[in-house]
Design goal:
The complex is a heterodimer of chains A (244) and B (446). Chain A has 244 residues and is an alpha/beta fold. Chain A has 5 helices and 12 strands. In chain A, the strands form 2 sheets. Chain A has a 6-stranded mixed sheet. In chain A, strands 5, 6, 7, 8, 9 and 10 form a 6-stranded mixed sheet that branches. Chain B has 2 domains: 300 residues, Mur-like, catalytic domain (UDP-N-acetylmuramoyl-L-alanine:D-glutamate ligase), CATH 3.40.1190; 133 residues, Mur ligase, C-terminal domain (Protein-Tyrosine Phosphatase, Chain A), CATH 3.90.190.20. The structure holds zinc ion. Zinc ion binds next to loops of chain B.
Chain lengths: 244, 446
């Protein structure tokens, strides 16, 4: 066993897993945790339940998952209380991964047939409910990594990202609105995306990107030890070959 | 004489016979053909059942509960129709009736025990009105990952409303099932377990319905049995666990199951806490319908699950147990059942992503596979279409695994080099093919 003191330490904040937990978000957390631990980076995850207060000063990576529309309305009310702190965190280059409903909540609003769900307005985007749900496997080409990004999408909302950078170009699947050919959003160190599956295990380079950005914000220029990603790559390649 | 009806019966029987080699699909096909020839056949035949019709709904445990109920009624000397193989949509249900008829199209049955897929109740209820509905539980299924549990509850509410005379038998430990029963005007009966049995309560486990359906507050639990099953109440409104009519006491879970309900002491040679609920549900349903169930324990002794629910095989000197595990709640219970066998074992996990399995495999990450990181496990092999995803899932629990996409090769390899005690956990579409492989291997003794 190596006994050297860890050089780095990161804290992940998982927001409202009691309400937003539809798509295997535990997989994203497990992936972030393990890929830190395998590199001797000290890491902990704090779960914030819907009645907890969130101290963004203590957080290095924030994860916001997806819920059903009903749950999202509940979350939206809670989020209003933390909106200002969350915005400062984002503007201060805080790392965020927001998936599905969490992605929609980053924007100004989600217009559903039952009414408008106000968002956090952290990123200049908005969502409207479409006719049907876009459900299938999905593959992207993303500027954040060399490997294709594979995942699964399942969303009724159509998201419009204005002039922001997309997370990736759609190679297979529907993406943000089924028409633009793009998926997700990148804003500062925020990634918003419809991809679950969960996203990170089969896309380890995205996971490492999040870890690296969090380290750089906290410690300045940083370097990540490469890991043996053969199994990750094989799982990724299997889906790419099957769908293209 | 209804010629169409007889024709439909003949055609279905012929189709089923011809398709037998293909396995289960044959049954669905037979039902479809019968309905095409005679669209009213299900309505007509259901009308010929002499006494009562039970249907069994719920996310997990439908097949086992339904087959137990059927066996319990048969043990009382009743003639029972049952969709034993678990074909639980309209065609499968029609097939159960049609294939039980004689060549003159006549049915000879006292009872019918039919498991019905929740969404298919909409197509079944216009055909016949059951006398009883058993509702086992409402968990998040692998197929409904976007709040569809709300949709499922709406469908059930609608069909229950359409059958005001039907009695409900619900799991009172499940807040969602209980809430559904409370919101309907039908007569209802509960079963449940009022004392904590295990020291469970891993709080990370996915729990559905943690929030009160009436007022939105977070439910408070005195204890959890597993998943969201337990003793709950709302701190804000009057909603709470209802009184339990069939209450299992002195529950023992281990190499075998035992519990008392009323004056009856029940013992079964199965593993898995969830089987306490399955047995209890069948018992409550039978008793509630006025049957004495004097032979219930004898029935349990002879009951052999034959549908890949903890089904045992003997192959090349090894014991093999096959079990279906298709969603997080079911899988977590399966893991408990496997770990209740404390001897060394090999494990094969088969994951497919066909339509009936759910094409989204995210749910694998909601299962507590970490518990397989134990000395009791000799090896784990991942197999099936999405074996790569399963391998990654285990990797991130620090558990190494062998990869063999082909199920038969995986089984043969572990029979050859394993420890002689093999568990095969499969999701839905892998069940029938895997079962066929094991049956074939069992019959072809070297
Ligand atoms: Zn309440």
């Amino acid at each position: 066993m190596k006994q050297k003191a860890p050089k780095y330490s990161l804290t992940i904040g998982h927001l409202y897993p009691d309400l937003l937990n539809l798509y295997g978000d535990r997989g994203n957390i497990a992936c972030l945790m393990k890929r830190c631990q395998w590199r001797d980076i000290e890491v902990q995850t704090i779960e914030f339940q819907s009645e907890d207060t969130v101290d963004f000063q203590k957080l290095d990576i924030v994860l916001l998952g997806g819920g059903s529309d009903r749950e999202q309305i509940l979350v939206c009310r809670k989020l209003k209380k933390i909106q200002a702190d969350f915005r400062s965190y984002v503007e201060d280059n805080g790392t965020v991964l927001a998936v599905c409903g969490g992605y929609q909540l980053l924007g100004k609003y989600y217009e559903t047939r039952e009414g408008r769900i106000e968002g956090l307005d952290l990123v200049n985007l908005y969502t409207e409910q479409g006719e049907d749900r876009l459900i299938d496997n999905i593959i992207l080409e993303s500027p954040l990594c060399k490997m294709p990004v594979v995942g699964f999408e399942n969303h009724g909302g159509r998201t419009y990202i204005n002039n922001n950078r997309p997370f990736g170009k759609v190679l297979y699947g529907s993406g943000n609105d089924g028409k633009s050919g793009y998926e997700g959003v990148i804003y500062k160190n925020v990634i918003g995306t419809y991809l679950h599956g969960p996203l990170l295990p089969k896309n380890p380079q995205i996971c490492d990107h999040l870890i690296l950005k969090a380290l750089e914000r906290k410690y300045g220029p940083a370097h990540l030890e490469p890991l043996d990603d053969i199994q990750e790559q094989e799982a990724n390649t299997y889906m790419v070959q099957r769908l293209t | 004489m209804n010629i169409r009806k007889i024709l439909a019966v003949w055609a279905a029987k012929a189709a089923c016979g011809a398709c037998r080699a293909m396995g289960r699909q044959g049954v669905t096909w037979a039902g479809k053909l019968a309905l095409m020839i005679c669209p009213s056949i299900l309505r007509e035949m259901a009308g010929e059942v002499r006494k009562k019709i039970f249907i069994v709904c719920g996310t997990n445990g439908k097949t086992t509960t339904n087959n137990l109920l059927c066996a319990a009624l048969e043990a009382e000397g009743e003639k029972v129709i049952c969709n034993r193989t678990g074909s639980n949509m309209l065609n499968g249900v029609a097939a159960a009736f049609v294939l039980a008829a004689d060549m003159g199209g006549r049915l000879d049955a006292d009872y019918a025990c039919i498991e019905v897929d929740e969404a298919s109740t909409r197509h079944i209820f216009p055909q016949f009105t059951p006398d009883y509905m058993v509702l086992t539980n409402l968990f998040r299924d692998q197929l409904d990952r976007y709040g569809e549990i709300d949709i499922t509850m709406d469908i059930l509410k609608e069909v229950i409303h359409s059958a005001p005379q039907m009695e409900l038998i619900v799991n009172g430990d499940d807040a969602l099932s209980a809430c559904l029963a409370m919101e309907c005007r039908n007569t209802w009966t509960t079963y449940g377990i009022s004392e904590a049995v295990t020291e469970s309560g891993d709080d990370r486990e996915m729990r559905e319905g943690r929030f009160c359906r009436k007022c939105g507050a977070r439910l408070v639990y005195r204890f959890y049995h597993y998943s969201q099953l337990g003793d709950y109440s709302c701190p804000q409104c009057s909603f709470s666990r209802p009184p339990i009519d069939y209450d299992a006491q002195e529950v023992q879970v281990g190499e075998q199951l035992s519990f008392s309900v009323g004056k009856e002491h029940i013992i079964a040679n199965y593993r898995g806490f969830y089987n306490v609920y399955n047995i209890l549900a069948a018992y409550a349903a039978g008793k509630n319908a006025g049957l004495p169930l004097k032979n219930f324990n004898r029935m349990l002794k002879n009951f052999r699950p034959e549908n890949g629910r903890m089904e045992q095989f003997r192959v090349q000197g090894s014991g093999v147990v096959l079990n279906l595990a298709k969603n997080p709640a079911g899988f977590n219970q399966n893991i408990s059942a496997v770990m209740a066998d404390e001897t060394l074992k090999d494990l094969i996990i088969v994951i497919n992503d066909n339509e009936q399995d759910g094409t989204d495999v995210s749910w694998l990450w909601d299962v507590d596979f970490d518990r397989f990181g134990s000395q009791q496990i000799n090896s784990i092999t991942v197999s099936g279409i999405r074996c790569q995803d399963m391998r990654l899932r285990l990797k991130y629990a620090d558990i190494p695994s062998l990869l063999e996409a082909d199920v038969e090769n995986a089984i043969l390899a572990r029979l050859a080099d394993g420890c002689g005690n093999l568990y095969v956990l499969v999701n839905y579409t892998a069940l029938f093919s895997t079962r066929n492989i094991l049956k074939r291997l069992e019959e072809s003794r070297p």
